[in-house]
Design brief:
The protein is of the alpha/beta class and about 260 residues long. It is about 40% helix and about 15% strand. A seven-stranded mixed beta sheet has the order 2-1-5-6-7-8-9.
């Protein structure tokens, strides 16, 4: 609602599916940082039974760490809010975080189509398999494949999270899990890129049509001219993102020649 009120054209949300097949709005793999329960136990979203356990969750104030009297929304609730408030020109970017089954993805697309309407939403994911399955489900929807972040971006994020965790009682005993908060296993992390002719050919084979590529700004900024020329030759849109902070992304964009943005 705040994003729409402030004039943004696209609103991005993260969705995961619970153990009993309900799509919910949640970025992290586990509760703890953005949501929590009074016992402070961390629970994996994919293992939570929505009907029995979701009602105990509460959103967490990111400044104070205190739990709020706010129930985190399921996707259906958020979709209804978006559909009723956003104009027809606004779009909802639904980033799929869970490694979901075809049946679960069918339900997600059904809800989005039924509540929001075709053309007013699109899907994005770091998982090419998720998007391949979604293409088989919906031949028309736009799909944005998110190329994995640069390794240096991961290091910056990890350092920032560890610094914050050191002063948070909830996380003092869970620092070994700090990588899971970012959604990546850093010790095994390998930067995998698709911003090449062979990479885009693989995406085209998998996603067929109506797709784009989202690239970490740290990867894009040093090779902007090459990447812009490459994606233009294939006729696909490219977007940049960051897992670090908004100011870093904005400053990086200003360093790029305007014809390469």
């Amino acid at each position: 609602i705040d994003a729409i009120d402030n004039g943004f054209d696209v609103v991005e949300i993260d969705v995961r599916v619970t153990f009993d097949g309900v799509w919910v709005v949640h970025h992290d793999k586990q509760t703890g940082r953005e949501t929590g329960t009074i016992d402070n136990k961390r629970r994996k979203i994919e293992r939570i039974r929505y009907e029995k356990e979701w009602g105990y969750l509460r959103a967490r104030d990111q400044n104070s760490g205190q739990l709020l009297n706010v129930l985190p929304p399921d996707f259906r609730t958020l979709a209804k809010a978006f559909a009723s408030i956003a104009g027809l020109s606004k779009k909802l970017n639904i980033e799929i975080k869970s490694d979901a089954s075809t049946k679960e993805l069918e339900m997600l697309d059904y809800l989005a189509f039924k509540i929001i309407g075709q053309g007013r939403y699109f899907f994005s994911s770091l998982s090419l398999r998720n998007l391949e399955r979604m293409r088989d489900i919906n031949s028309q929807v736009f799909l944005s494949f998110i190329q994995s972040p640069a390794e240096q971006s991961m290091r910056v994020l990890k350092a920032k999270l560890e610094k914050g965790a050191s002063s948070d009682n909830i996380y003092q005993d869970n620092q070994e899990r700090i990588e899971d908060i970012a959604g990546f296993a850093f010790r095994r992390y390998k930067e995998k890129r698709y911003d090449s002719s062979s990479g885009i050919s693989k995406l085209k084979k998998a996603l067929k049509r109506n797709f784009g590529l989202a690239i970490d700004i740290r990867q894009y900024v040093g090779q902007a001219s090459r990447i812009k020329s490459l994606v233009s030759s294939y006729g696909i849109p490219v977007a940049t993102y960051t897992i670090n902070d908004h100011a870093y992304h904005a400053n990086s964009l200003f360093k790029i020649a305007s014809n390469s943005r």
